[in-house]
């Protein structure tokens, strides 16, 4: 069983890393958030505190509990300085195999042999990420969903060497933070990323072809299929650079049906990456709120 004395390390303070760190501190675990960028760490810390303060305002969280959660979070700019006694490390760095391998390899040298090394990759091979380790059985995929504090699912992804003890421990960690876990044998795009990438890509094809406006495509999925967010809104939230990287990988491994829509390539080249830069399919204000009527239409592509 996981107990509250065990510590967690989250590497990468982007959208996913921020959400994952919040999930652990709010569930009672001392957590170290690591990023080479001091500015990114400061932003992530402020966002985590903002989520906790929002919970207090909504009456979902006691002020004392929010303050306790804040005190359990520490930030660190150097992976070499993480607590060696941590029981779980979750990396959320860029979707680049070499970068993820480097993080996992260095972490394995610092943490004890019983620590679980998890990757939040949405498309890359867990087996390849773990391939440089002497103990690859310690590595598992823990694919969280955005926004982490609202989404209950975690995909546990098995590499070829992932052992039963690692799976059992990862399931216990998911239970401890109130998440539902499913087991997925390693495959390009897992289950959800594969389906989401295809849906988002097809939505962009429709937008490029002028089938409907961005707002109407998203409304169709929200109102017609009861999706909480339309595929273009979701792409803006995830980041079209990340979405393009995933599609390129799926196209290379699974074939022509995942060929990226040219509009995604054009948007990434133009720097319209989504909410994180204030402009994607939609435009966003300084608070990250979507500006009404700002969605792309077939006539303005």
TrEMBL record:
Gene Ontology molecular-function annotations: 3-hydroxybutyryl-CoA dehydrogenase activity; NAD+ binding
Protein keywords: NAD, Oxidoreductase
Coiled-coil stretches noted in the UniProt entry, renumbered to this chain: none
BP terms from Gene Ontology: fatty acid beta-oxidation
Gene3D superfamilies: N-(1-d-carboxylethyl)-l-norvaline Dehydrogenase, domain 2, NAD(P)-binding Rossmann-like Domain
InterPro entries: 3-OHacyl-CoA_DH (IPR022694), 3-OHacyl-CoA_DH_NAD-bd (IPR006176), 3HC_DH_C (IPR006108), 6-PGluconate_DH-like_C_sf (IPR008927), 6PGD_dom2 (IPR013328), NAD(P)-bd_dom_sf (IPR036291)
Domain 3-hydroxyacyl-CoA dehydrogenase C-terminal: 191-284
Transmembrane segments: none
Top-level taxon: Bacteria
Domain 3-hydroxyacyl-CoA dehydrogenase NAD binding: 7-186
Protein's name according to its UniProt entry: 3-hydroxyacyl-CoA dehydrogenase
Organism, as annotated: Gammaproteobacteria bacterium LSUCC0057
